[in-house]
Amino acid sequence: MSIMDYNGSAVVAMIGKDCVAIASDRRFGVQAQTVSTDFQKIFPMGDKVYVGLTGLASDIITVSQRLKFRSNIYKLKEHRELSPKTLTAVISNLLYERRFGPYFCEPIVAGLDSVSGQPYISGCDLIGCPVEPADFVVAGTSTDQLFGMCEAVWKPDLSPEELFETISQALLSAVDRDALAGWGGIVHVIEKNKVTTRTLKGRMD
To answer: Is pTM, for the whole model, over 0.70?
Structure first.
């Protein structure tokens, strides 16, 4: 088993029409043993910028704390919020610094640009190589299942409510086919004037 699969996780982000959504499962496990069902994998880094972290649970906590620190330093120095694109650069830099002994963590960024209001998503591998797709991005132990579901249900210009339904169906269907992820989910839908957070009830087995 890869160290990236040790705790199990599933995170997905999708772009809609003037909105973006990011969702994750809630399971924290040690291989096949489930330890808790309310583990946080998505962290706010600003009003309209969220980062989802998959991989080794200890590194998820470490990276989230280091990103929060760098985000706060940026706000103090620049007197403005981090944009999603800037956050991707910060994450890429943080991970590449440790490339010879990397954080076992694959981040996903989702947010709206504070100036243009354009939806933005990106993903990185564990040494910080970024990708910026125009539709959806997935990470975790359920990537194969998530890719299949997202390709089947995603379409351009989804409204916020349609985006919520689409990302929820994709996440729940994918984690049902992965023993290392699941136990419900959490979805954040980011719009220009609000962020809606909903908790999903999934199969509890």
So the answer is: yes
Alpha helices in 38-110 (DSSP H): 57-78, 84-97
Give per-10-residue mean pLDDT for the chain (205 aa). 91 96 95 92 94 96 96 94 94 96 96 92 95 95 94 93 96 93 94 94 83
Pairing between strand 10-15 and 136-140? Answer: antiparallel
Specify the DSSP class assigned to residue 201.
P
- For 192, the token pair is 């220009």
Taken in order 165, 166, 167, 169, the sign of the CA dihedral is positive
Structure-token pair, residue 66: 């280091």
> 74: Cβ–Cβ under 8 A, 6 or more apart, which residues?
82, 86, 90
For residue 63, give the nearest of 26, 91, 82, 21 by alpha carbon: 91
